[in-house]
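Quick check before the chapter quiz. The format below is the same one you will see on the exam, so make sure you can read both the input and the output lines.
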Amino acid sequence: LWNFTRKKKMRVLKYLGILLFIGVGYSFIQFEQQEQQKEQVREEEIEQYEKQEVVDPSILGMITLVKTGKKSLIKQGEIEEILSQNQVVSLTQTLDTKEDLYLAGHSIPQVFGDLHDYQIGDRLLLSFQNQQQEYEIYQTKKVSTSDFQVFQSEEDFPRLVLITCTNHQQIRYVVFAKSVHS
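Here is the expected output.
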């Protein structure tokens, strides 16, 4: 049954290679379409939020990276699900701005990809229930995923803490900001 000549083996390998290439290409196209759909939904939700037509109760507000104008909705709920939608998730599950607010998002262009280019003194804008609060970055650092000291504040003011991924699976990039008007 498997008594192929060298020429037949090469032909079979060639066809298998072509099938593999087609399969990978098809998977890539499907992935790209899913990402485009996520981005379209994301943009529509941002537009609805800005027009004060929010229909999704999980939307808490919006964060704007002022220097680049990048906007992302802040949601509460299942962390992995929200992150998979290319959205920002509230880790504190509360919006009491008198306390620290922890937000997490992927380091992709649609969310916090630009955050790595931000420096001390750069501004962030938070919008909750038609109220805006401006924040200024006062510290950035990279921490291990097992370092929970980032959640302990020694500051005497409420902080905005943004957490995103890096090129290293075990390292997170953390940005600390304080209210401009506190």
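If your answer matched, good. The two ends are 80 Å apart (CA to CA).
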